[in-house]
Amino acid sequence: MIGTMLLSSLLYGLIHTYNEREERLQGVTLGMLKPLLFRNLKKMLIIFLMGFALGILIVLVLVILIMLTPFTLIFTIPAAIAVMLPFALWTPIYLLEEITVIGALKKAFRLGFATWGGIFLMALVMGLVANILQGVTMMPWYIATLVKYFFAMSDAGSGATVSVGYSFFLYILGIIQTFGVYLAMIFSVVGLVYQYGHASEVVDSVTVEDDIDKFNEL
């Protein structure tokens, strides 16, 4: 979770810096991003805590409705999905704008319901891409690990051990697996920012998609 928050904070910081500076990302150093990185980490922690509290509240409401009658599931589950989908814009709005967390939540729902279909499609596509990336990078590690345990079990009586070279090979595959997870996360973050830009342009006539497109080309 900490790695996820750090990477997301860095990505949002880079996008924010790119949009604010005339020189874009030219000459930007980690020292220049450090204040923005800590600011984003603080904001993401606030969103996590508030999102957790809101999630518990939604679950409690659903449980109460289910206890009243199970037939409410026909309406409550689709309604809950429809209400929760605009939450996806909460993070990019709060991190990329100078706005309060409650103001960002209100704006997320305003933009989210106006572009609900786009958010759903973006989440579907980015989720598919992320799962493919994670699957491609994780599969070699899982296969190599299964091979390791297979030979370890077959050679248990002889006292044989896995070679240092094969252990190092597993270590490299583990790094590739982690890289795939973070790469999938990058796709998800950029997709959300792009959808936020599209929603801002459609609803508020604020054009930011061009900047995001140029950012993707770097």
What do you see in this structure?
- The protein contains 8 helices and no strands.
- It is globular and about 60 Å long.
- The chain has one domain.
- The longest helix is centred in the last third of the chain and has 41 residues, at 164-204.
- It has 218 residues and is mainly α.
Write the layout of secondary structure elements.
Layout: H1 2-20, H2 30-68, H3 73-84, H4 90-96, H5 101-114, H6 116-154, H7 164-204, H8 209-216
CA radius of gyration is 22 Å
Order of SSEs? HHHHHHHH
Instruction: Tell how many strands the DSSP assignment holds.
Output: 0
Task: Report how far apart the termini are.
Answer: 27 Å
Summed over residues and divided by their number, the pLDDT gives a mean of 80
Number of helices: 8
Task: Give the strand content.
Answer: under 5%
Overall SS class: mainly alpha
Gross morphology is: globular
- Taking pLDDT < 50 over at least 5 consecutive residues as the criterion, the unreliable ranges are none
The largest sheet, given as strand count, sense and whether it forms a barrel, is: none
What's the domain count?
A: 1
* Helical content (DSSP H or I, runs of 4+): over 70%
